[in-house]
Inverse folding.
């Protein structure tokens, strides 16, 4: 027999699960949104002209890293003019979709 605290805890867990699943992101939507990302991140050993910067490979990066990086560029916490401009066009859901897509690449 379940006690009252266990039932409350289980109900709380069930209330949170749909929100987490919703924000996980759709890789197919992310593929469409990330089309412009491949202009730099899809070119092996690409170096950005201004500011001069070796563009990192993001295919296969962790989901959390991509989400936190894009949000940091969007907020201005992380600085790079091109990435700030790109991130400022993305909603939270777009960011999660893009991250879900890049995680699938190797």
């Amino acid at each position: 027999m379940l006690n009252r605290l266990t039932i409350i805890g289980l109900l709380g867990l069930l209330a949170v699960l749909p929100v987490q699943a919703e924000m996980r992101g759709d890789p197919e939507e992310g593929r469409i949104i990330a089309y412009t990302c491949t202009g730099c991140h899809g070119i092996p050993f690409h170096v950005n002209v201004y500011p001069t910067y070796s563009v990192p490979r993001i295919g296969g990066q962790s989901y959390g890293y991509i989400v936190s990086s894009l949000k940091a560029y969007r907020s201005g916490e992380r600085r790079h003019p091109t990435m700030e401009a790109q991130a400022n066009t993305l909603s939270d859901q777009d960011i999660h979709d893009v991250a879900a897509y890049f995680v699938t690449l190797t």
